[in-house]
Each structure stands twice: as structure tokens, then as C-alpha cells.
Amino acid sequence: MINSNFRSDINSLRALAVVTVVLFHFNVTGFSGGFVGVDVFFVISGFLMTGIVARGLSKNEFSFISFYLARARRIIPALLFITLVLLLVGWFYLSPDDYVRLSREVDRALLFLSNNYFYKKSGYFDPGSHERLLLHTWSLSVEWQFYILYPVVLFFVSRINKKLVPISVVFILIISFCFSVFKSNIDSSYAFYMLPSRAWEMLLGGVAYYASVSKKYKPSNVWCQYLGLFFIVLSVFIYSPATVWPGIAALLPTVGTALVIYANKESFLTNNIVSQKLGDWSYSIYLWHWPFVVFLLLFDIEQSPLITVFLISLSVLFGALSYYFVESKSKNLLAYNNRLVVFILIFVPVAFALLAAKLIRDSDGYIARVPENAYAVFDQANNKYHILQNCHKKRSSDDCIYGDGKIGAIVIGDSHAMSIVSSVTGVFSGNSVLDWSNSGCPTINGVQVKDVEPSKCNDFLSSRLNKLSNYSGLPILVANRFSSHFSGANEDKQSSRLPRLYLNTAFNEFSDVYVDEIYQGYTETLCFLAKNNPVYILKPTPELKLNVPEVMGRSLLIGQEKRVSVSLAEYKERNEIALRLLDDVASKCNVTLLDPIPYLCDAERCYGDVDGLPIFFDDDHLNMRGADLLKPLFEQRLLIK
Q1: Model pTM greater than 0.85?
Q2: CB of 353 closer than 8 Å to CB of 87
Q3: Element at 72 (helix H, strand E)
């Protein structure tokens, strides 16, 4: 048993945790569940914090100020350093929009509100999240919020009766765990990011602390340790981004971690020089590895095995340097007994970083620093039909109508329909266009979406379909990102593989049953539209997987030119089910299919730009330049009397 205050077994758990997270983020085969490393960190934090608070309360000498300053000494210096480095690097290599986004992330990271911020933006496993340089700071925010509240709760319980403190920890753990299981199934993003659904993991560390100091009979220390390590390693290999998380599944790595901590056993597995060094450097490695992962995506660098090994090694090197020259040095620098001096030394630099971030936002990312040719490319990301966006923001039961005169056509679909409305409106000069598009909502009557408001898409679409008879005979143009509804997004290999759509019961995989249900839902709805109206369906536009303006613009920043494209063969493979669906609907329901490929692609590939300027505002949505390319198609087919 380990008797000193330093626990080599806990340090090795830190090493195991950071290794699994890093290998997962770099897409190393076999580590599909490496994200559980964060859960391991949570249990460790809960154990250590419970020990600090419990010992202080038992001796009636616990100080809130000392506790919070100690946490600040530990967490803030390395975090502050990397935010400043990223702001400096971003000046030279980020687009104005990216730079503004980074400044917001710096704010939230240093104020420990990252988890709230990223929850409102997107899910952790969603493709869009993988371009956020400080995404990984969400876990630090969860821990900091726990640090703020936890000692307060234990303090007030101890004022009532100190014997109730362990009981209260177990009680809150049970409530948080039940809430986590519930939320994981109805709002997985909230469950992943937010403290109420994560607190139980840290509280489990608290239970491990109270169990370890208990004088009651203890099981074999060796077997506890081995079983715990087995649970952690098993979870790394059997889980994936498709796993409902945290929920019940998170019990495996967290209980495993608690068992290792409870065992308090020193062995070669937990006390060797590699695990101890990685454990020492783990916090800084965690901070540094993610920006390297993001830069792979930002600059479209092909991730070969050699590149992967190099960047992982670089992450460890930077982590070690940060540990010795930032963490250790700041620890010595902040070793003052005067708490006011410590407060000033910590928070004045933080205030400086927050001010710098604000100046970046106020100046729109300092556009003048970007070369004109690069900015022209970046700016195509903003070349959207802003009239539509403004109308959608305030739209409720009212419809959006663009143009003048009588309604000449109706556009229905998701955000892919939204991206072509400007082109359709331009074609129907002298008439107006009725917009029934809604982002994220496929043209499937009765569809439900795994979200805070599961029925929001159906409520919108069904209310429009109920008044379709008022527009009998008007041409309807339908556009959707069909393939994402059948098989998920294709932007990133680590994207969540959980279907968001369902008609009756939610699905946990893109199974044949799921595909059949969505296929049937599309067929019935599209045929319903065609009963009294001529219906035109736009076949899928290419999905280029990479943000076209950003990739092209960033390449120009480093003196290179790069085009983004997919082959026609890849397009056909990606859209196989969607194209079969549309052919079936065309033959059954007398709808007309419109093919965008001749207007957007050559004989072999589909490119994201024309004449050096993007025709997409991201990876799969046409901007107004791209939508204008389809005007001849719409003029030829939609205007036929």
C-alpha cells in the first residue's frame, strides 16, 4: 500500500487517461472509446477534492479562499499560456471569422464557461466541433464549476452533522447519475457537456475517498486494481462516438477508476518511469494535443501514420515543456502566503487575455491583417441570402415570401433548400417565392428529431402541409441533404454515428430498419406533395467534406493554392440510397428530377470553386455564387408552362 501523500497509482491513471484521449483524437485504430479518458480524470478530481475538503472540515480549518486559489494555481497558468499562444498563431494563420470564434472560445475557457458555450453550438462528436481550437477546455469548465459548488455543499451539510457528509455525497451521486441516464437519451449534447449530468463521476471519486478511509473490511487490493484497469481498457476498445454517453455506459471506466483508486496499490503497472512522467505532464499534454488535431483539419493535411506519430510526439514534447516551464515555474512563482498577491499575479494576466479577445471581436478579427486574395475567398462564406436568414430568425406561424407579385413557386426542404432560394427567387422575376424550408428538417411528414424539441420539424412541416390545398397547382421545388438523413454527416471520420431522425422509435444506429423507415417516410411525403402540385426534386448537391472557403483561404495564408473537390464516383457512392429513392418517387408519383451535377461538376470531379472563388459557404451548402449556377436549370424546367 502507498502511504505517502503522493499516489503513484493516481499519477499513472492520469497517464492512461491522457494517452487514451490523445490516441482517440488522432483517430488511432483501436481507440474508438478513448474519450473515456476524460471520465477517468473526473473521478480522480472528485477523489482528490473530496479528500482536501473532508480533511479541512474534519479539523474545522477549511478555507474557501485557499481552496479556490490552490485550484487557480494548478489550472490557470498552463491554460492561460496556451490561449495566448493560440491568439498569437491565429493572427497569422486564421481567417477573420475563425479568429473571432477563437476569441470567443478564449473568453469562455478562461471564465470556465466552455461547456455551456459548446453545448449551445454543437455536439462534441459533431463535425463542426472539430474546428474549434479550445473545444477540449469544456472538461476544465465542468471541473471548475464542480470545485466552486462542491465545497459549499459539503460545508453546509457538515454544519448540520459531519456524519451526513458521506451520505450526502452518495445521495447527490445517485440523483446526478439518474439525471445523466435520462438526459443522455433525450439530449445527449447536454448530458455530455453540463455539470448536472457529469457531477456523479466526480462524486464517485468522493465515494472512493470515503471508502478508502473507512476501517471496514476491504477486498483484495491487487484484484481491485487489476479489475479496475481492465474496466478502463475494455471501455476504450468497445465504446465509440455512437455510444450513448455518458449515461449507463460511463459506469465501466468510472467504476474502474474508482476501483484502482480504492485499491491504493503500488505495482509496476502503476509505478514505472513512463507512466509517472506522462502522469506529471498529462494536464499540459491534454491542453496541447487538441490544437494539433484541429490544425490537421484546418489546413487539410493528410493524416498519414508518419504525421500522426510526429504530432503525437509533438504533443508530448510541448506538454513536457509546458509542465517544466509553465506549470512548475508558476507554482514556484505563486508560492506566496499573501493571498492578495497570488490573486493579482493570476488574474491580471487573465484580464489581459480577456481584453485581447474582446479587441479581436470588436475589430471583426482584424480583417486588414489578411491579404486581399485570401480575404476574397474567406468572404464567400458570408455570401448568403441574408433576406432569408433574417426572415427565418423572426418566423413563427407566418411564412417567408420573397419577391413581388403572385406566388410563383414553393421551396420545401432543409438547409440545402435554403441555400438555393435566392436562385429560385431570381428565376421567378415578376412573381414571388414561398419559402417552406427549415434548417435540419427533412421533408418527411411526422418526423421526430432527437433534440430538446423532438417535434419541432414535424410541427413546422405539418402545419404547412395542412394549407397546401390553398396553393394547388403551384410548382414545388424540394431540396434536402438526403444522404445525411440516411447515413449521417460525412465531414469527419469521428462524427457521431447516432441517427437523429425517427418516426416512431429512436434508433441508435443507421440500420437497415432505420433506412427503410426514412425511405418510406420520404416516399409518402413526396408523393403527397405531388397529388395536386407539379413537384420538382433537386438531386443531391455534392458534399465536399471540407469547408471550402476556409481551406482555400488558409492555404493562401501560407502561400499555397488548394482546390477542394470530390470525385463523381465518390458522389455516386455517397448518394446511392438517395438517388434510388428519388428514382422510385419519380416513377411512382410523377415528379420531375433536376440534376445539378452538369452545372457543378466536370466529367470526373465536383469542385468547390469556380474561377478561384468558392461556390459553397461551407462544405455542402451552396453560397449565392453556387446557387446562381443552377439558374439555367431552374429556368429550363420550372418556367415551362
Answers
A1: no
A2: yes
A3: helix 64-93
